[in-house]
Task: structure prediction
Amino acid sequence: MAPELFVGIFQDSLQMVLIMVSAIVVPGLLVGLIVAVFQAATSINEQTLSFLPRLIATLLALMFFGHWMTRMLMEYFFHLIEEIPQLLY
Result:
């Protein structure tokens, strides 16, 4: 049981989490930036105007990237199952 194997698994899992989280968060951040610029230009300070578009963008990102993220998780899980014999010996 070499520590390098565990470090490699940990690095792969962190990389996958960062990719999956960024696929959901980045669209919301971009929409939030656009709404903030619009609010600053028009002097509208309505809270729901900044919250609702970000929520919709996040839900759309989940709908659009959901299949890809599920496939990515399944491939990683199968990779971990294949790595079990190397971890034991």
Notes: The radius of gyration is 20 Å. Residues 25-84 form one domain. Helices lie at 3-42, 47-88. The chain has a mean pLDDT of 90.
